[in-house]
């Protein structure tokens, strides 16, 4: 038996359609789409095949292809204890294994400090771009006034 993970699925994907897409390549033993606790689709799912050859054929067919307007990635699932498996980075993933640090209180305080730093950086970046935009708008207005004065010099009076 072989399992595949299918990433970047389109929003409207239903389990029946997901199963039927892969059923053309062999006997599907199981399939599931993943959702958050709130019921929001996380845009990935798993499909299991009875034979390894069926899974390989489905992977070759669907990997880097389009489902609706989403380009999907299909990979072979790795075992839970496999050290070559990438660490989960999603905010929805649970802490697992030796990748997490043992001191959760110090890491949570440092992560909140990092989050505060990111917010400050984001705010300063927004203010920077707002000032750049305002400056550009002011510059364009100044150019407009100068061009208007050059085009119609008799209509303007200057006070010195």
UniProtKB/TrEMBL annotation:
A molecular function GO annotation:
mRNA binding
Stored SUPFAM superfamilies: RNA-binding domain, RBD (SSF54928)
Domain spans labelled RRM: 2-79
Keywords assigned by UniProt? Nucleus, Repeat, RNA-binding
Annotated region Disordered: the residues are 84-111
Q: Which GO terms describe its cellular component?
A: nucleolus
Q: Where in the cell is it found?
A: Nucleus
Question: Low complexity bias located where?
Answer: 91-111
The answer to whether UniProt assigns keyword Metal-binding to this entry is no
- What is the protein name stated in its UniProt record? Putative RNA-binding protein 19
Species of origin reads Liparis tanakae
Instruction: Provide the gene name from the record.
Output: RBM19
